Amino acid sequence: MPNPRCHFLILLMKFVSIICFCHYIVPTRGEDETKPVKVDVGIILDFETVLAKVMHTCILLALADYHAASRSAIRIVPHFRDSKKDDVEAASAAISLLKDVKVQAIFGPQMSTQTDFVIEIAKRAEVPIISPATSPLLTVEEHPYFIRAALPSSSQTKAIAAIVSRFDWREVVVIYEDSPYGTGIVPHLTDALLESSTLVSYRSVISPSANDDIILRELYKLNTMQTRIFVVHLQPSLASRLFLKAEEAGMMSDGYAWIITDVLTSLLDSVNRSVIESSMQGVLGIKPYVPRSNELTNFNKRWRRRFRQEYPDMDTVELNVYGLWAYDGVTALAKAVEKVAGTATPKSKKVDTRDNSTDLDALGTSELGSLLIDSMQNITLKTGLSGDFRIINGELQPSPYQIVNIIGKGERSIGFWTETDGISYKLKMNGKTAKSNNKKLGTIFWPGESNIVPRGWEIPTTGKKLRIGVPVKEGLEQFIKVETDPKTKAVTATGFCADVFIEVIQSLPYAVPYEFIPFRIPDSHTNPDYDHLVYKISSKEYDAVVGDVTISENRSKYVDFTLPFTESGISAVVPVKDDERKNAWIFLKPLQRELWITTGAFFVFIGFVVWVLEHRVNEEFRGPKRKQVGMVFWFSFSTLVFAHKERVTSNLTRFVVIVWVFVVLVLTSSYTASLTSMLTVQQLQPTITDLNDLIKNGEYVGYQEGSFVKDILKRIRFDSTKLRSYSTLEEYNAALSRGSKNGGVGAIVDELPYLRLFLNKYCGKYIMIGPTYKTAGFGFAFPKGSPLVPDVSRGVLKVMEGEFMNNIIQKWFGNETDCPEKDGMVITSDRLKLDSFKGLFLIAGVSAGSALLTFLLIFLYQNREILATDDSIWQKLSAIAKAFDDEKEKPNSKSEKPGEGNESQTTTPFAASAASPEISPNLPSQSPETRTASPPDEGFSTTEPGTPLEETITEAKEER
């Protein structure tokens, strides 16, 4: 019986033989098809840094995963080089890879300055550079063989600006590294902040080689400034030292806010835990958002095992977004190589180096590089570990940014930011912010373990007090009065403006120490005025100005004003007239001179038109010349009291008279109403009703010394030689009392608050006239961009809405209701002007002119034989005038015989008493029925009865 053990050995040998045969036969048959194509890729990293070790592990796993999943014969062979944090070393490594290894692509270097060197070298060899460099100074437009496999630092600036705007901070300080890494972001960050109306008040530059004393000295300098919002753009090693010294300087306490950029936030695990726990609590940070997934969780476990194998002596390190970008970038590179390797040989063209003296001349050019760069410039990994990994035109496209708050040993997410939707607390699965939660963030713990949002600025406790400039001048102490203690030299300010300012400062939720500094406003015209006081702010001599300073367009170019705390406007005050009811000529006052003249002219014109229309047909308008001239004036003026008794016969005349009577009715009614008001209502009437009257009359005008009102008077065409300045209310009164002809003025032009005070003191003696020129009122002035302006403006509103404003007005200006005559209204003239009746006179003129023109045309047509003669013009005119002067013959009346169908005309002359039966016995007497059926046609008269029927018939026949 055979041994079972031997039998087993025989079978095993046969099985091994079969496997060996198959292994020999298969490669022989398909040797050309399965032979792997090797593609060399260079990897340049700074292996002295933790980040390089993280990326190194990710790159190894990316190549392993690609080879395991790919069925192609492409084999990516990595060649790692250490740049040793040196630009020259990085360039040397690139030359070595391109010349000796003949790599078809290079991933790296990490640093932007190194990448800038390597790009130029690779450009000669036409080899693409896939680098995680973040400097915005490196652009793919200028470097066609450059592919950025990380987000540039400029892409985060809008997210930072959105955070600053979210908390209404108006100024920030930027702390950045003095290196290409730090300086590249500054212009983009400044522009983004300006778009959200935020200023960069100061730029603090810190050298990477700065020692702790230099850093501490710079922080002390920042602490003396007002701004308390700091944006930090430093690498982790330098940032660690900065925050340690910030804690030492007391700048990690309540009232401060710190925002760190994406590199520091993403590499926060590389910062010492003790630094985070002691000196970075409450800091806000932003970093690219990496969505959670099962693939990322599994990869993180694999990465930890592989990292411990590669670097067993290192402490625990966390996987970060730069490692994930390296994984996705190498994966995208491998896919691009797989896509183009079949169309070109992965090798470089050799060049003749016999006459070349440098290594750069011996690099050659890659046959695969140009195809590879085209494939890499637009590539997408939808299942990338870092999220939606998309490279378009050589740039990695932005992803949402995550906003975190450093608390305890790590960070906590408080929100997100995207380019399209802005800030949001939550993020949808598609990477867009949730609309319902837009503009909201989670609970934030600020430095000093505070949950109150920092105000953003403070008056430094170690700095000087606010230097408040206050005007010192003679008079008008109700508004501002400055006194200096002779012993202590302490300056105190009182008055309406000072009390409002003190109340506003006390209403602020924080303390603002200040001191008043006097600024004298002299009486001389050539010395400084209020404009010079305001300019002291822009020259850094004062921190603010408090007083009766008017907000103007010119001053706002140099300073920022708060909201006004007084009424606005510029007007004039003039003396009042005596009681005009005692004036013997008051009956002429209701109408202005132009209206009187126009009315008189129309009376004469209407009388003339009526005379022309009635002269030939009406006995009342004939006779001697003196009678006719008198009739011209009498008829029209008698309509003023509706006392005319003359009968008019022409329809044209009736039309003219009807319109004119309506005009007279309106005029007399208006005159009566105005005169009644003047005689019955006691009121203060100004000596001058309009500023333009002052210009016409050449009157002198007064204004307040040092006020901008002088410039306004010049702009409205006042002669500068007619302007006189005064400082006190008493001087105002004396100048107005003397008058312009006696060394005084005809009016005082000033701002409404001063005029109110003046009228309240001299009640009933002066009155305000129009027009009122609008101004912005009094305001407090601060430097441009001062963070105090919004808070003080809100304080002004709070004070004005309360009872305090009424009390302070009562305190300094008294009770304005004590002077009922000074009603505060702008007085204008009560006299009727021509402008109010232009339409009425136009209607009367057109109607009368039309009637006169119609009469002339008819008259000339009737006398056309005269115009057709061969006589001279003078003879024709004489004949026409004689024909006009002759009385028009009255045609005979016509009657009808009863029973006849046609008209029978019988000429019967009518005498003045044609209706008398004794003179006309043949005419049948008029029955009452006949008179009722044909009523007599009356002339336009208010006193005469109707004319006889026969005359009416005659006139009707005449007009036919």
Descriptive account of the structure:
By secondary structure, the protein is of the alpha/beta class. The protein folds into 5 domains: 37-150 and 292-350 and 358-396, Rossmann fold; 153-290 and 400-424, 3-Layer(aba) Sandwich (Rossmann fold); 466-566 and 785-811, Periplasmic binding protein-like II (D-Maltodextrin-Binding Protein, domain 2, 3-Layer(aba) Sandwich); 572-577 and 684-775, Periplasmic binding protein-like II (D-Maltodextrin-Binding Protein, domain 2, 3-Layer(aba) Sandwich); 581-680, Helix Hairpins. The chain has 31 helices and 30 strands. The chain has an 8-stranded mixed beta sheet with strand order 7-6-8-9-10-16-17-18, with helices on both faces. A 5-stranded parallel beta sheet has the order 2-1-3-4-5, with helices on both faces. A 5-stranded mixed beta sheet has the order 27-26-28-25-29, with helices on both faces. Helix 4 (87-101) runs parallel beside helix 5 and helix 9 (212-223) packs across helix 10. The longest helix has 30 residues, at 651-680. The N and C termini lie far apart (166 Å). The model is unreliable at 21-33, 820-828 and 892-960 (pLDDT under 50).
What is this entry, summarized?
By secondary structure, the chain is an alpha/beta fold. The protein has 31 helices and 30 strands.
